[in-house]
Design goal:
The chain has one domain. The relative contact order is 0.16. It has 13 helices and no strands. 60% of the residues lie in helices and 0% in strands. It holds the Pfam family FA_hydroxylase. Keywords: Lipid metabolism, Membrane, Oxidoreductase, Transmembrane, Transmembrane helix. This is Sterol desaturase family protein. One of its GO terms (cellular component) is endomembrane system.
């Protein structure tokens, strides 16, 4: 799709900048660690992951979408619906698949060893939304390509989904203050930072809740929703108990962490 990369980069940097400024003006929690060191590690992972995907995959979700449309692959390519209806259905279906993927990464031990790096951040802010191991990104890309083919998602829906997923991941990891009354209404339609922050708690039963990224409905429907952390947002501890030493959280150690002996 022409201009796709420009659109994605523009949204990525715009959301990053807006949420980062919001975190300075109205933070939700006091940070406990070195912000610069965390930002260098988390944003370095963005660059590494981008290179890894481009080296491994010869085709991307928009490309597989065009190929599926050309060859009649996928459920939405065999039904007669207007493009807007197909796009809405595709975005919702892709979001549910990403929710299920996230659940699997928590409950399958081999996948948890890869995903847990995301949870080792000792603070949570906008950059945590980009803190994923390259192996997780590659597996996720494979799942996404399969899902787009199976659904027959229109190309415009794939672009919308990719842009929204990245934007909401940064937003709902933001260390930003939203008034409780507004948050209660917002989380009926989107996943707010207070809703997702519970997921990054050190308490396992909280870590294994609130798996959604875009739409907040899947957690409620599937019984994985938890409204608030037990210790409150200011009092809760972020991260994993096994990985709390700064020396274990450098970029090099993050990359080799799936092979580390410590596990939950």
């Amino acid at each position: 799709m022409p201009g796709e990369q420009v659109i994605r980069l523009a949204f990525f940097f715009s959301v990053l900048a807006v949420v980062a400024i919001w975190e300075v003006i109205a933070p939700r929690r006091a940070l406990t660690g070195n912000k610069r060191r965390r930002w260098v590690a988390n944003l370095s992972l963005v660059a590494i992951n981008t290179v890894a995907v481009r080296l491994i995959f010869p085709i991307f979700p928009t490309g597989i979408s065009l190929l599926a449309q050309e060859r009649g692959w996928g459920m939405l390519n065999v039904v007669n619906l207007p493009i807007w209806a197909k796009s809405i259905l595709a975005v919702v279906a892709l979001d549910f698949i990403i929710y299920l993927q996230h659940v699997l990464f928590h409950f399958l031990p081999i996948l948890w060893r890869i995903h847990r790096m995301h949870h080792t951040d000792l603070d949570i802010d906008v950059t945590t939304g980009n803190r994923f191991h390259p192996m997780e990104i590659l597996i996720s890309m494979g799942i996404k390509l399969a899902a787009v083919s199976l659904i027959g998602a229109p190309t415009v829906a794939v672009v919308i989904f990719e842009v929204v997923l990245n934007a909401t991941s940064q937003f709902n990891h933001g260390n930003i203050f939203i008034h409780d009354a507004l948050d209660r209404w917002l989380r009926l339609a989107v996943i707010t930072p207070d809703m997702h922050r519970v997921h990054n708690s050190i308490i396992p039963r909280e870590t294994n809740s609130n798996f959604g990224f875009n739409l907040p409905w899947w957690d409620r429907l599937c019984g994985t929703y938890r409204a608030q952390p037990e210790e409150g947002h200011e009092g809760m501890t972020i991260g994993l108990k096994e990985f709390r030493e700064p020396a274990m959280l450098t970029l090099t150690h993050l990359l080799i962490q799936p092979f580390a002996r410590k596990s939950t």
